[in-house]
Protein backbone atom coordinates (compact mmCIF):
# COMPACT_ATOMS: atom_id res chain seq x y z
CA UNK A 1 0.00 0.00 0.00
CA UNK A 2 2.62 2.47 -1.08
CA UNK A 3 0.02 5.14 -1.74
CA UNK A 4 -0.96 5.16 1.92
CA UNK A 5 2.44 5.29 3.55
CA UNK A 6 3.74 7.83 1.05
CA UNK A 7 0.91 10.30 1.56
CA UNK A 8 1.27 13.48 3.60
CA UNK A 9 -0.59 14.45 6.70
CA UNK A 10 -4.24 14.96 5.63
CA UNK A 11 -4.16 11.82 3.51
CA UNK A 12 -2.43 9.96 6.32
CA UNK A 13 -5.42 10.75 8.48
CA UNK A 14 -7.70 9.26 5.84
CA UNK A 15 -5.48 6.22 5.64
CA UNK A 16 -5.63 5.86 9.42
CA UNK A 17 -9.41 5.75 9.51
CA UNK A 18 -9.42 3.19 6.66
CA UNK A 19 -6.89 1.17 8.61
CA UNK A 20 -8.86 1.37 11.87
CA UNK A 21 -11.97 0.08 10.07
CA UNK A 22 -9.98 -3.02 9.28
CA UNK A 23 -7.70 -3.71 12.23
CA UNK A 24 -10.41 -3.08 14.84
CA UNK A 25 -13.26 -4.90 13.10
CA UNK A 26 -11.33 -7.42 11.00
CA UNK A 27 -8.61 -9.96 11.57
CA UNK A 28 -8.74 -13.30 13.31
CA UNK A 29 -9.83 -13.40 16.92
CA UNK A 30 -8.53 -16.50 18.69
CA UNK A 31 -9.54 -16.65 22.29
CA UNK A 32 -7.79 -18.75 24.86
CA UNK A 33 -5.44 -17.53 27.52
CA UNK A 34 -5.43 -14.18 25.87
CA UNK A 35 -4.95 -11.08 27.95
CA UNK A 36 -7.43 -9.03 25.96
CA UNK A 37 -9.54 -9.66 22.94
CA UNK A 38 -10.80 -6.49 21.36
CA UNK A 39 -13.76 -8.44 20.10
CA UNK A 40 -16.00 -5.82 21.64
CA UNK A 41 -15.35 -3.32 18.87
CA UNK A 42 -18.31 -1.21 19.88
CA UNK A 43 -16.58 -0.45 23.14
CA UNK A 44 -13.53 0.84 21.31
CA UNK A 45 -15.59 2.84 18.84
CA UNK A 46 -17.64 4.42 21.57
CA UNK A 47 -14.51 5.25 23.51
CA UNK A 48 -12.98 6.88 20.46
CA UNK A 49 -16.11 8.90 19.81
CA UNK A 50 -16.07 10.11 23.38
CA UNK A 51 -12.45 11.07 23.00
CA UNK A 52 -13.10 12.97 19.79
CA UNK A 53 -16.26 14.63 21.01
CA UNK A 54 -14.30 16.03 23.93
CA UNK A 55 -11.74 17.59 21.60
CA UNK A 56 -12.42 21.30 21.16
CA UNK A 57 -10.71 21.39 17.77
CA UNK A 58 -13.23 18.94 16.37
CA UNK A 59 -16.32 20.26 18.11
CA UNK A 60 -17.66 21.78 14.88
CA UNK A 61 -18.00 18.35 13.36
CA UNK A 62 -19.82 16.84 16.31
CA UNK A 63 -23.28 17.41 14.84
CA UNK A 64 -22.39 15.55 11.67
CA UNK A 65 -21.60 12.33 13.51
CA UNK A 66 -25.29 11.89 14.25
CA UNK A 67 -26.35 12.49 10.63
CA UNK A 68 -28.28 10.17 8.35
CA UNK A 69 -25.33 7.81 8.19
CA UNK A 70 -24.20 8.21 11.83
CA UNK B 1 5.64 -1.55 39.46
CA UNK B 2 7.19 -4.57 37.76
CA UNK B 3 9.72 -4.14 35.00
CA UNK B 4 9.16 -5.15 31.39
CA UNK B 5 11.27 -8.24 31.92
CA UNK B 6 8.92 -9.34 34.70
CA UNK B 7 5.84 -9.11 32.51
CA UNK B 8 6.60 -10.25 28.97
CA UNK B 9 3.66 -10.94 26.72
CA UNK B 10 3.34 -11.94 23.06
CA UNK B 11 1.80 -9.68 20.43
CA UNK B 12 0.61 -11.68 17.42
CA UNK B 13 0.49 -9.94 14.02
CA UNK B 14 -0.50 -12.72 11.69
CA UNK B 15 -0.32 -16.38 10.85
CA UNK B 16 1.58 -17.11 7.65
CA UNK B 17 1.42 -20.26 5.59
CA UNK B 18 5.01 -20.16 4.41
CA UNK B 19 6.98 -23.02 5.92
CA UNK B 20 9.69 -23.23 8.55
CA UNK B 21 12.36 -21.62 6.39
CA UNK B 22 10.47 -18.32 6.44
CA UNK B 23 12.91 -15.42 6.41
CA UNK B 24 11.41 -12.27 7.86
CA UNK B 25 12.16 -8.90 6.31
CA UNK B 26 13.64 -6.38 8.74
CA UNK B 27 10.67 -4.56 10.22
CA UNK B 28 9.95 -3.06 13.63
CA UNK B 29 6.83 -4.14 15.48
CA UNK B 30 4.67 -2.33 18.01
CA UNK B 31 6.68 -0.16 20.37
CA UNK B 32 9.68 -0.78 18.11
CA UNK B 33 9.99 -4.40 19.27
CA UNK B 34 11.93 -6.83 17.06
CA UNK B 35 9.61 -9.13 15.14
CA UNK B 36 10.24 -12.88 14.99
CA UNK B 37 8.55 -16.05 13.81
CA UNK B 38 7.12 -18.64 16.14
CA UNK B 39 6.65 -21.85 14.11
CA UNK B 40 3.57 -23.74 15.23
CA UNK B 41 5.09 -27.21 15.42
CA UNK B 42 2.61 -29.89 14.51
CA UNK B 43 0.69 -27.46 12.34
CA UNK B 44 2.38 -28.02 9.01
CA UNK B 45 3.68 -24.82 7.52
CA UNK B 46 1.66 -22.48 9.75
CA UNK B 47 3.91 -19.89 11.37
CA UNK B 48 2.95 -17.10 13.77
CA UNK B 49 4.61 -13.71 13.38
CA UNK B 50 5.06 -12.21 16.84
CA UNK B 51 7.00 -9.82 19.01
CA UNK B 52 7.43 -9.42 22.74
CA UNK B 53 4.98 -6.98 24.25
CA UNK B 54 5.46 -5.49 27.69
CA UNK B 55 2.26 -6.21 29.59
CA UNK B 56 2.73 -2.97 31.53
CA UNK B 57 1.77 -1.26 28.23
CA UNK B 58 -0.07 -4.04 26.38
CA UNK B 59 -1.75 -5.99 29.17
CA UNK B 60 -5.49 -5.93 29.63
CA UNK B 61 -5.80 -2.94 31.95
CA UNK B 62 -3.21 -0.86 30.10
CA UNK B 63 -4.80 -1.65 26.72
CA UNK B 64 -8.21 -0.51 27.84
CA UNK B 65 -6.95 2.97 28.53
CA UNK B 66 -4.31 3.10 25.78
CA UNK B 67 -6.88 2.19 23.11
CA UNK B 68 -8.68 5.43 23.91
CA UNK B 69 -5.58 7.46 23.13
CA UNK B 70 -5.83 8.20 19.43
CA UNK B 71 -2.11 8.92 18.99
CA UNK B 72 -1.18 5.66 20.73
CA UNK B 73 -3.78 3.77 18.71
CA UNK B 74 -2.55 5.27 15.44
CA UNK B 75 1.07 4.33 16.13
CA UNK B 76 0.18 0.79 17.20
CA UNK B 77 -2.23 0.26 14.28
CA UNK B 78 0.39 1.43 11.79
CA UNK B 79 3.09 -0.77 13.34
CA UNK B 80 0.74 -3.79 13.33
CA UNK B 81 -0.19 -3.12 9.71
CA UNK B 82 3.44 -2.51 8.70
CA UNK B 83 4.48 -5.96 9.90
CA UNK B 84 1.52 -7.67 8.21
CA UNK B 85 2.28 -5.92 4.93
CA UNK B 86 5.95 -6.87 5.21
CA UNK B 87 5.14 -10.58 5.56
CA UNK B 88 2.18 -10.66 3.15
CA UNK B 89 4.39 -11.36 0.14
CA UNK B 90 5.98 -14.40 1.85
CA UNK B 91 2.85 -16.50 1.60
CA UNK B 92 -0.85 -16.46 2.40
CA UNK B 93 -1.28 -14.22 5.41
CA UNK B 94 -4.03 -14.38 8.01
CA UNK B 95 -4.01 -11.05 9.88
CA UNK B 96 -4.88 -11.03 13.58
CA UNK B 97 -7.24 -8.51 15.14
CA UNK B 98 -5.40 -5.52 16.59
CA UNK B 99 -4.27 -6.07 20.18
CA UNK B 100 -4.16 -9.85 20.12
CA UNK B 101 -1.86 -10.31 23.09
CA UNK B 102 -1.11 -13.59 24.84
CA UNK B 103 0.51 -14.05 28.20
CA UNK B 104 3.08 -16.41 26.69
CA UNK B 105 4.07 -18.20 23.50
CA UNK B 106 2.76 -21.42 25.06
CA UNK B 107 -0.73 -19.97 25.54
CA UNK B 108 -0.67 -18.62 21.98
CA UNK B 109 0.19 -22.09 20.62
CA UNK B 110 -2.55 -23.68 22.70
CA UNK B 111 -5.13 -21.22 21.41
CA UNK B 112 -4.12 -21.75 17.77
CA UNK B 113 -4.12 -25.54 18.18
CA UNK B 114 -7.79 -25.49 19.13
CA UNK B 115 -8.72 -23.51 16.05
CA UNK B 116 -6.63 -25.14 13.36
CA UNK B 117 -9.39 -26.45 11.02
CA UNK B 118 -11.03 -23.02 10.88
CA UNK B 119 -7.72 -21.27 10.36
CA UNK B 120 -6.81 -23.67 7.54
CA UNK B 121 -10.18 -23.02 5.89
CA UNK B 122 -9.60 -19.27 6.14
CA UNK B 123 -6.13 -19.65 4.61
CA UNK B 124 -7.60 -21.62 1.71
CA UNK B 125 -10.25 -18.96 1.15
CA UNK B 126 -7.69 -16.13 1.11
CA UNK B 127 -5.00 -17.80 -1.00
CA UNK B 128 -4.10 -15.71 -4.09
CA UNK B 129 -6.65 -13.11 -3.13
CA UNK B 130 -6.36 -9.49 -1.98
CA UNK B 131 -8.71 -7.05 -0.28
CA UNK B 132 -9.65 -3.71 -1.85
CA UNK B 133 -11.78 -0.95 -0.40
CA UNK B 134 -14.32 1.29 -2.11
CA UNK B 135 -15.62 4.37 -0.36
CA UNK B 136 -18.59 6.31 -1.70
CA UNK B 137 -19.52 9.90 -0.90
CA UNK B 138 -22.34 12.22 -1.85
CA UNK B 139 -20.98 13.98 -4.93
CA UNK B 140 -20.18 17.68 -4.39
CA UNK B 141 -21.66 18.36 -7.87
CA UNK B 142 -25.01 17.11 -6.59
CA UNK B 143 -24.89 19.53 -3.71
CA UNK B 144 -24.09 22.38 -6.09
CA UNK B 145 -27.01 21.54 -8.34
CA UNK B 146 -29.34 21.35 -5.37
CA UNK B 147 -28.17 24.73 -4.15
CA UNK B 148 -28.80 26.26 -7.60
CA UNK B 149 -32.31 24.87 -7.68
CA UNK B 150 -33.28 26.82 -4.57
CA UNK B 151 -31.87 30.14 -5.79
CA UNK B 152 -34.98 31.42 -7.67
CA UNK B 153 -36.95 31.08 -4.43
CA UNK B 154 -34.82 33.71 -2.78
CA UNK B 155 -36.18 36.63 -4.83
CA UNK B 156 -39.81 35.71 -4.08
CA UNK B 157 -39.05 35.24 -0.42
CA UNK B 158 -37.55 38.69 -0.09
CA UNK B 159 -41.03 40.19 -0.59
CA UNK B 160 -42.68 37.77 1.80
CA UNK B 161 -40.66 38.88 4.81
CA UNK B 162 -37.26 37.82 5.99
CA UNK B 163 -38.46 35.42 8.70
CA UNK B 164 -40.62 33.46 6.28
CA UNK B 165 -37.85 33.63 3.66
CA UNK B 166 -35.34 32.22 6.09
CA UNK B 167 -37.59 29.34 7.03
CA UNK B 168 -38.29 28.50 3.41
CA UNK B 169 -34.64 28.64 2.43
CA UNK B 170 -33.75 26.47 5.41
CA UNK B 171 -36.46 23.97 4.52
CA UNK B 172 -35.43 23.87 0.85
CA UNK B 173 -31.79 23.46 1.75
CA UNK B 174 -32.55 20.56 4.08
CA UNK B 175 -34.79 18.99 1.47
CA UNK B 176 -32.11 19.30 -1.22
CA UNK B 177 -29.52 17.85 1.15
CA UNK B 178 -31.78 14.89 1.92
CA UNK B 179 -32.43 14.31 -1.78
CA UNK B 180 -28.75 14.35 -2.72
CA UNK B 181 -27.98 11.97 0.16
CA UNK B 182 -30.82 9.65 -0.88
CA UNK B 183 -29.69 9.69 -4.50
CA UNK B 184 -26.11 8.91 -3.54
CA UNK B 185 -27.26 6.16 -1.15
CA UNK B 186 -29.32 4.56 -3.94
CA UNK B 187 -26.29 4.79 -6.23
CA UNK B 188 -24.10 3.24 -3.54
CA UNK B 189 -26.40 0.24 -3.19
CA UNK B 190 -26.34 -0.32 -6.95
CA UNK B 191 -22.56 0.12 -7.07
CA UNK B 192 -22.03 -2.37 -4.23
CA UNK B 193 -24.19 -4.94 -6.04
CA UNK B 194 -22.32 -4.41 -9.30
CA UNK B 195 -18.89 -4.63 -7.62
CA UNK B 196 -20.02 -7.88 -5.99
CA UNK B 197 -20.04 -9.48 -9.44
CA UNK B 198 -16.28 -8.98 -9.73
CA UNK B 199 -15.18 -10.36 -6.36
CA UNK B 200 -15.06 -13.57 -4.34
CA UNK B 201 -16.63 -11.95 -1.27
CA UNK B 202 -17.71 -8.53 -0.10
CA UNK B 203 -18.45 -6.86 3.18
CA UNK B 204 -19.81 -3.50 4.28
CA UNK B 205 -18.08 -1.58 7.05
CA UNK B 206 -20.06 1.07 8.90
CA UNK B 207 -19.72 4.57 7.43
CA UNK B 208 -16.71 6.36 8.86
CA UNK B 209 -17.01 9.07 11.45
CA UNK B 210 -16.37 12.48 9.83
CA UNK B 211 -14.49 13.37 13.02
CA UNK B 212 -11.98 10.61 12.35
CA UNK B 213 -11.84 10.96 8.56
CA UNK B 214 -11.96 14.75 8.43
CA UNK B 215 -14.23 14.47 5.38
CA UNK B 216 -17.08 16.94 4.98
CA UNK B 217 -19.09 14.95 2.40
CA UNK B 218 -21.50 12.35 3.73
CA UNK B 219 -20.23 8.80 3.31
CA UNK B 220 -22.74 6.43 1.75
CA UNK B 221 -20.55 3.39 1.02
CA UNK B 222 -17.68 1.79 2.95
CA UNK B 223 -17.21 -1.53 1.19
CA UNK B 224 -14.49 -4.18 1.33
CA UNK B 225 -14.02 -6.58 -1.57
CA UNK B 226 -11.96 -9.77 -1.73
CA UNK B 227 -10.55 -10.15 -5.22
CA UNK B 228 -8.69 -12.87 -7.02
CA UNK B 229 -5.30 -11.29 -7.61
CA UNK B 230 -5.68 -11.45 -11.39
CA UNK B 231 -8.94 -9.46 -11.28
CA UNK B 232 -7.59 -6.27 -9.66
CA UNK B 233 -7.37 -4.33 -12.94
CA UNK B 234 -10.87 -5.40 -13.96
CA UNK B 235 -12.21 -4.32 -10.55
CA UNK B 236 -10.47 -0.96 -10.70
CA UNK B 237 -11.98 -0.36 -14.15
CA UNK B 238 -15.43 -1.26 -12.81
CA UNK B 239 -15.06 1.28 -10.00
CA UNK B 240 -13.99 3.96 -12.49
CA UNK B 241 -16.92 3.15 -14.79
CA UNK B 242 -19.43 3.34 -11.92
CA UNK B 243 -17.90 6.61 -10.78
CA UNK B 244 -18.27 8.09 -14.26
CA UNK B 245 -21.80 6.80 -14.82
CA UNK B 246 -23.44 8.09 -11.62
CA UNK B 247 -23.16 11.86 -11.04
CA UNK B 248 -24.78 11.52 -7.59
CA UNK B 249 -21.95 9.49 -6.19
CA UNK B 250 -18.17 9.83 -5.90
CA UNK B 251 -16.25 6.58 -5.46
CA UNK B 252 -12.71 6.16 -4.16
CA UNK B 253 -10.68 2.97 -4.37
CA UNK B 254 -8.24 2.00 -1.58
CA UNK B 255 -5.84 -0.89 -1.44
CA UNK B 256 -4.53 -3.41 -1.94
CA UNK B 257 -5.04 -4.40 1.70
CA UNK B 258 -4.11 -7.55 3.57
CA UNK B 259 -7.42 -9.45 3.84
CA UNK B 260 -8.42 -8.00 7.25
CA UNK B 261 -12.11 -7.91 6.43
CA UNK B 262 -12.35 -11.53 5.28
CA UNK B 263 -10.82 -13.62 8.05
CA UNK B 264 -14.16 -14.54 9.64
CA UNK B 265 -16.08 -17.64 8.59
CA UNK B 266 -19.14 -15.63 7.62
CA UNK B 267 -17.20 -13.21 5.43
Question: What topology does this entry show?
Answer:
The complex is a heterodimer of chains A (70) and B (267).
Chain A: H1 2-6, H2 9-25, E1 34-36, H3 41-53
Chain B: E1 8-17, E2 35-39, E3 46-54, H1 55-58, H2 60-66, H3 70-88, E4 92-95, E5 101-102, H4 105-113, H5 116-126, E6 129-138, H6 140-160, H7 162-196, E7 201-204, H8 210-213, E8 219-228, H9 232-245, E9 249-257
Antiparallel strand pairs in B: 1-3, 1-4, 1-5, 2-3, 6-8, 6-9, 7-8
Strand-residue fraction of chain A? under 5%
In angstroms, what is the radius of gyration of chain A? 15 Å
The ordered string of helix (H) and strand (E) elements of chain B is: EEEHHHEEHHEHHEHEHE
N/C terminus separation of chain A: 28 Å
Strand-and-helix sequence of chain A, N→C?
A: HHEH
Termini gap of chain B? 43 Å
- The general outline of chain B is globular
Residue-averaged pLDDT of chain B, rounded?
A: 86
> Domains counted in the coordinates of chain B: how many?
2
Q: What ranges of chain B have pLDDT less than 50 throughout 5 or more consecutive residues?
A: 1-5
Which structural class do the helices and strands of chain B define?
alpha+beta
**Number of DSSP helical runs of chain B:** 9
Largest interface by residue count? Answer: A-B, 47 and 69 residues
How many strands appear in the DSSP assignment of chain A?
Answer: 1
Instruction: Report the sheet with the most strands of chain B, covering strand number, pairing sense and barrel closure.
Output: 5 strands, antiparallel
